[in-house]
Amino acid sequence: MGYHIVVCGSLVPDPLQTLEPVQGPQGPALKNEMMLPAVLDPWASHALYEAAHLARTVAGSRVWLVSLGPKAKLQQVMMTVAQKAPFELVAIDGSASGFTDAAAVAGALADAIEAIPDLDRTRLLVFGGWESASRGASAVMQIVGERLGLVDQFQGVDALTVEDGGALRVLERIEGGRHQVSTLAGPPALFGWATGHLGEPPNNPQIGMANMRAIMPALQRAKPAALGAGPTFARVSLPKQTRQTRVVKDLAVDAIAKEIVDWIKG
Amino acid sequence: MSDDRQSLDVDIVCVGFGPATGGFLTTLGRGLAARAGTPAAESRVAPGLPLQVTCFERADDIGTGVSGVVTRARGIRASFPDLDPAQIPMAAAVRHETVAYLLDPGGASRRSAALRAVDALLRAGRGVLPMRDHAVELPYVPGFLRKDGGLILSLGQFTQWVGSQVLATGAVQVWPASPVAQALVEHGRVTGVRLVDQGAERNGAPAAGYLPGMDVRAALTVVGDGPVGVVGRQIDEQFGMPAGHAKRDWAIGMKMVVDLPETCALEPGSVLHTLGYPEPEIFGFLYVSGERTASLGIFVPSWFDSPVRTAYRYLQHWMRHPYLWRHLAGGRMRSWGAKSLQESGRQGEPHLVGEGYARIGEGSGSTNVLTGSGVDEAWTTGVQLAEGVLELLDAGTPLTREHLHRAYVARRRASWVEREARVAERARNGFHRGVVTGLVGMALAGLARGRLGLPGTALRAQARVRTLEDWVGNRIPAAELETLRREAATFGAGLHDAVMSRLGWPAIPYDGQLLVSHQDALLMGGKVQAAPGFADHVIFLDPALCRDCREKLCVEMCSGQAITRGEDDLPVFDREKCIHCGACHWNCTRPAPEDPNRSNLQFRAGAGGLHSTEN
Lengths: 266, 615
Fold this sequence. Notes:
The structure holds two protein chains of two kinds.
Chain A: E1 4-8, E2 11-13, E3 21-24, E4 27-30, E5 38-40, H1 42-57, E6 62-69, H2 71-81, E7 88-93, H3 102-114, E8 124-129, H4 140-148, E9 153-162, E10 168-174, E11 178-184, E12 189-193, H5 205-221, E13 223-224, H6 253-265
Parallel strand pairs in A: 1-6, 1-8, 6-7, 7-13, 8-12, 9-12
Antiparallel strand pairs in A: 2-5, 3-4, 9-10, 10-11
Chain B: E1 7-9, E2 12-15, H1 19-34, E3 53-56, E4 68-71, H2 74-79, E5 92-93, E6 96-102, H3 113-124, E7 131-132, E8 135-137, E9 151-154, H4 155-168, E10 173-175, E11 180-186, E12 189-195, E13 198-200, E14 206-211, E15 215-217, E16 220-223, H5 230-239, E17 250-259, E18 270-275, E19 283-290, E20 293-301, H6 311-319, H7 322-328, E21 332-342, E22 353-354, E23 357-359, H8 375-395, H9 401-413, H10 416-424, H11 435-447, H12 461-464, H13 468-472, H14 478-491, H15 496-502, H16 518-526, E24 538-540, H17 543-548, H18 553-557, E25 563-565, E26 571-573, H19 583-587, E27 591-592, E28 595-599, E29 601-603
Parallel strand pairs in B: 1-15, 2-3, 2-16, 3-10, 6-18, 16-23
Antiparallel strand pairs in B: 4-9, 5-9, 6-8, 7-8, 11-12, 12-15, 13-14, 17-20, 17-21, 18-19, 19-20, 22-23, 24-29, 25-26, 27-28
Helix pairs in contact in B: 1-4, 1-8, 8-9
């Protein structure tokens, strides 16, 4: 009897993109958001890779990816993500800018999870990013868990192992670079992943082709998310910063640290 | 670690997702969707399923490795009759076209005596000529250059727009971040492609997570991997080129997307072409796409014989020309990138079809070198191939060379792409004898509809590029050149900056937003990245040849400063900075040890590169 693993994760602008908040007709947004190349949020990516790994090792498991983002961009990101691991997509059409209300996003995700046909809550493991590259509040996954009535929640997870007898052993990050070890009897539970220990899987077109047969219909079925008006932002602006770039390779750690300290001291 | 190479059978596999493959898959996808459930649209390798069509794109996302364009868009509009440019970000209708000759405002440009005389005449006549800011606008734009009714496009955004529509048909699949290492050739027939290995060390050795590149077998391999694509080049080498055809004319196009300042008076839809500066051999363009955004850049051709030809610094000097700077001062770089252009046109056309394969797009010689147009032609060749394939599928005819010739090549030969390519065929020959001769040759070919043209023979880079001593003449003493060389070797840098500064080019006043260092252009503009786990894709075959190479044009011309001088003055490649422009492929001046027709530098397939889709 495998797990039913639901991974919550959406897209963020590809790293190194210049992000500029602007005041749009529906509130704050990222300038040219629809033109920016996007990737699956790196935190959620780790959660997906961990889910796929767990599903591979525990027979009978299934993996769903629940994504809330602009449908057109989701379709684009899926071309890459679908090659990484087998999953079934549940798409929700809506903004992924990070300016939306965390509780509203969590509500939309929880509603979508509850609507998954054949989902067995006694086997349910909800995965997601501990934080997000577009939102650092660490709030969404906690609220998703609360909405689903999941009382066993773990945040900053780096490892999840299945012990003999089916108990789950969890390593959570705590201060001082250490882990807190917990053991729970089994599902249901929620895990906000940190980086985990798995590398990014290679692209595998065979997995991609198998995934895509269901992904395209899922995208076509995607319903608009009812996110509401959300919070009111009094002002959005770019942090003042000056780029001083040098590309230097193989610099000693001490030299890097000294340079940063010198820079901070001005 | 896995030693097993996976294999996948599909019906049609495409290499590269640019405009040509966009045209192919748009047409094929629609055609297959309309034939859903019929025998024509049924897979031959997976009976009962729809035809299996898949496309592998090298770049990490579709639309991240291409460039901006102004096009008549005849073929594109034929595919999208109701096309509204407003549907595509950064697209605009062409409103106004200007060609300007830029004089040298600073005296550093390397101009022939004839050109200096022309400049002097123009300056003398400035009271009667339409001259301002050291530039003369041509009184009219020749018809063969005009893009009446055309479109300004960000090819990145256009490609993404096309990609979303292609995928929405559900009939085809496109996989980015999937470089194709080679074509599979068995008994003279292309049977598919092999993807690059993943989880590999820099030298290609298996590392953690090693996954040998998958073999994807197909009845038809559609090669649309552009001018420097590995599959196209492999097929050129393995099956040869038609008699008299060769790909020897190249250019590097380097560009920026710029947020124009509030003070800029250029209207959306403005198209500006320049010639004459920063060097007479370098041509420039500026297209205003709307919302105060412009695509601008230069072309540095292979017949510009400088051994220190660098695109990036020349691009900055071009932008700083008073005629352009009046529009650009205060602007901000949004994006940056570069790509190679195959400039041989029809003279570089390979065999368009063979057993198991068909060629489309720029790598198939579709670029019109007279009109300077390639995207629409590439798109149209893709459409033509798709129409031919659908015709063969409907008839239940196998996709053999003979049938593809009838269904695709004959279509292409009967089309405007071929007709106009023949007009352009000899248009650029004159450039091999000089800029002025080249311009005269272009004018002759354009005005006489191809009936007239000047002779000229393109040479390989090995035979073309001059020594630095010869190039600078007596402007820099030999002893000083040696000092500059030693300093460049010490710092691992190219020579071009030092040589250009010594020849009188002023320092670039960096402003941190438009005029930035080359490395900042990579980070701020190109957002250049490379995922780990792939082998180096630039290989120096015989290090001894590189050590003895005085020009090291691979270093000078590298668009991303990914090739530098390392220990013992050997070139060193850093794939994290490579933008896959392919300039190194045609700028290596040393023939390969075992094949004089190839160079000592191998440009293979690799992942990563530009991550901006605004180019």
